[in-house]
Design brief:
Low-confidence stretches: none
Mean pLDDT: 91
Structural class: alpha+beta
Number of helices: 11
Radius of gyration: 20 Å
GO molecular function: sequence-specific DNA binding
Distance between the termini: 40 Å
Largest sheet: 8 strands, antiparallel, barrel
Helix content: 25-40%
Number of strands: 12
Protein name: Lrp/AsnC family transcriptional regulator
Order of helices and strands: HHHEEHEEHEHHHHEEHEEHEEE
Length: about 325
């Protein structure tokens, strides 16, 4: 991927809906060139915008390991990836076949999915669930390293706008607009109105309200294999509760960190990193051991392929197919 592509993606990680005019001023380009570059990246499945609920603290998040019969692996992936409860689906090594990121509204829903539905999926032999008690860092916090500090500050300023209270549940009439944004998070009100055949003024009002509250959160994603960090690894660890805050602060300084979660169970901390190489994983593990002697790494899991990420179906090379399975939080309730 070209440096100009990485710079644009980094810009949209910071300010997903920044105008092309503002982005052009920061990146030293033209609005037309940036729009064309983004469309090329998006059409190739190399970068895309995801949309999820801005009130995810109300959801139950869990990470579910599956053992699957090899002959049923493809069928199981297809079936599970189309379930809105499985936000992400990864094919892994190290004693697991699949790892799911599950986001559901409550524990009853989690129990139904993990105890009733997954075990009856053809080929699934075992289900093991790690429930998140707190999400410290998530993929939306991870950044490329393509922009200098001044450019990053300018984009953060461009992304800053006044927020009003979330205003409760999303009105039923807004859901078609939400669905359009879920498929293309940079669509403007005029484009959405044309696609839906709706009154432009009404759609403009609805989009403005959605953006001015915490109802929706936008995230710029990138096909990991095309970045400088193609290796994905998850560690499970045990940390004394007295050291948890210090551990979280220390791990959060790692530029490779994509996810950091406290979990219930024997391992009470889980973190996921994107690394440059297999050798880089050893460097990171050694660094973590040196900086955090109280942290005991109990297991590491290597991701071989990601087949779904935050609702977007991916191909075997981790590129977005353009097909989105709306998560429960972006469905009418």
């Amino acid at each position: 991927m070209a440096e100009e592509d990485l710079a644009l993606i980094h810009a949209l990680q910071i300010a997903p809906r920044v105008s092309w005019a503002e982005a052009a001023r920061v990146l030293g380009s033209s609005p037309t060139a940036l729009a064309a570059r983004w469309e090329r990246l998006r059409a190739a499945g190399l970068a895309w915008l995801t949309v999820h609920s801005g009130e995810q603290s109300r959801d139950v998040v869990a990470f579910v390991d599956l053992r699957v019969e090899p002959s049923c692996r493809t069928e199981a992936i297809e079936r599970i990836a189309r379930d809105p409860r499985a936000a992400s689906v990864e094919e892994t090594a190290d004693g697991r076949d699949l790892v799911l990121t599950v986001i559901v509204p409550d524990y009853d829903s989690l129990a139904a999915f993990t105890l009733d539905d997954l075990p009856t999926t053809p080929g699934v032999r075992a289900v093991n669930t790690h429930v998140a008690t707190k999400v410290h860092r998530q993929g939306a916090d991870w950044r490329l390293d393509a922009l200098d500090p001044d450019q990053q500050a300018a984009l953060r300023e461009a992304a800053r706008h006044a927020k009003s209270p979330a205003g409760g549940r999303i009105p039923d009439s807004y859901w078609p607009v939400v669905e359009r944004l879920a498929h293309d998070g940079r669509q403007n009100a005029a484009e959405i109105a044309r696609a839906l055949g709706r009154d432009p003024a009404t759609v403009r009002r609805q989009v403005a309200r959605l953006l001015a509250t915490d109802a929706l959160a936008f995230r710029c994603e990138v096909a990991g294999l095309r970045t400088r960090w193609p290796i994905v690894c998850t560690w499970f660890a045990q940390v004394p509760m007295t050291e948890l805050d210090h551990t979280v602060r220390s791990l959060s300084t790692l530029p490779e960190l994509r996810l950091l979660v406290s979990t219930a169970g024997q391992s009470n901390l889980m973190f996921l990193l994107w690394a440059r190489s297999a050798g880089d994983l050893m460097r990171i593990e050694r660094l973590v051991n040196e900086k955090l002697p109280s942290l005991r790494l109990s297991e590491s899991v290597l991701t071989l392929r990601t087949r779904k990420r935050m609702g977007w179906l991916l191909d075997r090379h981790g590129r977005a197919t353009g097909e989105v399975v709306l998560p429960h939080s972006l469905r009418p309730r």
